[in-house]
Each structure stands twice: as structure tokens, then as C-alpha cells.
Description:
Mean pLDDT: 93
Shape: rod-shaped
Strand content: under 5%
Number of strands: 0
Number of helices: 2
Distance between the termini: 36 Å
Helix content: over 70%
Structural class: mainly alpha
Amino acid sequence: MSYQYKFQRILMLKEKEKDEVQEMYRGSIEKFETVAEKLYEFLKKKETLEQKQQTQLQHGLSVQNIRHHQQFIANLEKTISYYQDLVIQARNRMNWYEEKLVDMNVEVKKYEKMKEKDFRRFLRDIQLMENKQLDEVSVVQYMKRRAR
């Protein structure tokens, strides 16, 4: 008599779904890191540019160069704002997948726990059947001895 878990297909399906969500979560982490690094690069670029402009202002700078730097910084700030929005979106997506993954883990654990309980019940039932068979054999042997 072999053990067969009645919800094995569901358990396998839930594990597969969990693995898929885990892959999506990993992808969202990578996307978040990529976008965050890009944002950092632009922030660093802006900081460096502002420091450079400040140094040049101390030594004298033409109005044309000041305007050029201000226009470049304004464009850089637009880019930074865009990437800040992307970072927020990526973080939200990452958090959503994380919550989904936690839910999937809980669900899979429930089915695994049910399987463990069912398997213990199966083993207990087998033990009870074996004990009954041993009792029957003992009774038959006892009756044969008495018959002699």
C-alpha cells in the first residue's frame, strides 16, 4: 500500500506559482536596483556640475556660461524627477511582489502541513492494520494449539 496525497496536484501547482512569483520578485528587485543606480548617477552628476559651477563662479564666468550651466542643470533636474518616479514605481512593484510571495509561501506551507498530517494518519492506519493482522494470527495460532 503506497501513500498518495489527495491534494498533491494542488500542492505542485501552488509551488509552481510560488516559484513564478519568486522569479518576478527577483526581476523587480533587479529593475529597482538598475533604476536606483541610474538615479544615483544623475544625482551625482548634478552635484558634481553644481560644484564645478560654484568653483568657476569664484574665478569668474561669463553670463553665457552661467545660462548654459543653468539650462543643463534644469534638464538634469527633469531627468532626476523622471527617475525618481521610476524608482517609486519600481519600489512599489517590488513591494507588491514581496507581499504576493509571502502569501504564496504561507499557502504552500499550509498544504505541506496538511500533507504531513495526512502522512502521519496514513502511517497510523497502517500500524493499526498490522496490529489487527498480528492479533488475528495470534488468535488462529492459539486456536490451533487448543484444538490439539
